[in-house]
Specification:
Blueprint lengths: L1 E8 L5 E7 L1 H11 L3 H20 L6 E8 L5 E7 L4 E5 L16 H5 L3 E8 L6 E6 L6 H11 L4 E9 L5 E11 L5 H13 L3 H7 L3 H9 L4 E9 L7 H10 L2 H11 L2 E4 L6 E4 L2
Helix pairs in contact: 1-2
Length: 282
């Protein structure tokens, strides 16, 4: 199972940190979509970031959808998470051009593209949907989500996201951290957090070195006070069903449905998030 913790930082506890080891969920997503290494890294980062963004929402019935649409070879990526345990992702191209950057890392920014937008839609049973949109900054996803919060929601937030792909092209480590600055946070705490983040290693390096999230918190923030206030487990989980597929089936004009069934023997509704097929023949 993937795991997360919600942590308060600082003397006045005005900084929230969401930290997660998302390997299990990211690995399943990469297997479902049969992604190449750079695509696995891209959907893993987005899936991890979206999960942490969902934890910020206060409504019990909250839902969040994050889409990234750049001019890179990978096309559009969409991740969705809700309060019922749904966590899923889809992408246009699971096999974008594989490029290594000057640091010897998978060039996710090239695959996603640097021209485009990030779009975030939030809603719940009690709140009308709200969509915010900002431009892409780098295509590396963590920087783009950080910029989204600053520009669209005027909120102090920062992301560290990572996916390590081994020589067998499998997801070996995946996870991330989201720092959320609360109102009235003292400058001294902000300075300490910023310094800690400047000195931090790539997040996957901590996943390689430590077996639990609390140890990673201690390693990154060292002498900064912290309190773990929530922890939990999650998994990649699609909410599609035959009932939902039937709604899509019924939305197709009857004459068109009948023609397809007559010619092909059936009509298939396909889920882009988990690759399930629902077959109808009448």
């Amino acid at each position: 199972m993937a795991i997360y913790s919600k942590v308060l930082l600082g003397e006045e506890e005005k900084v929230l940190v969401y930290i997660t080891d998302s390997k299990s969920a990211v690995k399943k997503a990469s297997e479902i979509h049969e992604t190449n290494p750079v695509a696995s890294a891209a959907i893993g980062r987005l899936l991890t970031g979206t999960k942490m963004m969902s934890l910020v929402q206060k409504e019990d019935s909250s839902r969040i959808s994050v889409s990234i649409n750049g001019d890179g070879d990978i096309g559009k990526l969409i991740a969705f998470c809700d309060h019922l345990g749904t966590l899923k992702v889809k992408l246009d191209n699971p096999n974008p051009e594989l490029i290594i950057n000057e640091k010897g890392k998978l060039d996710v920014g090239h695959a996603v593209g640097k021209n485009g937008y990030v779009s975030v839609t939030k809603d719940s049973d009690n709140i009308k949907p709200y969509t915010g949109q900002t431009k892409l900054i780098s295509g590396e996803i963590a920087e783009d989500l950080t910029y989204y919060y600053a520009d669209s929601e005027q909120t102090g937030a920062a992301f560290s996201l990572g996916v390590f792909i081994n020589k067998e092209a499998e997801v070996e480590y995946a996870g991330g951290m989201m720092i959320h600055i609360l109102p009235d946070c003292p400058d001294k705490d902000i300075d300490k957090i910023e310094k800690a983040m400047q000195n931090a290693k790539a997040f996957t390096e901590y996943l390689k070195e430590y077996d639990d999230l609390e140890s990673i918190i201690k390693a990154i923030f060292k002498d900064i006070n912290y309190k773990i206030i929530d922890s939990g487990e999650y998994e990649y989980n699609c909410d599609c069903s035959r009932w939902r597929a039937k709604l899509a089936y019924d939305s197709i004009p009857k004459e068109e449905r009948d023609t397809i069934i007559k010619e092909d023997g059936n009509l298939t509704v396909h889920c882009d998030y988990c690759k399930s097929d629902y077959v109808f023949n009448r």
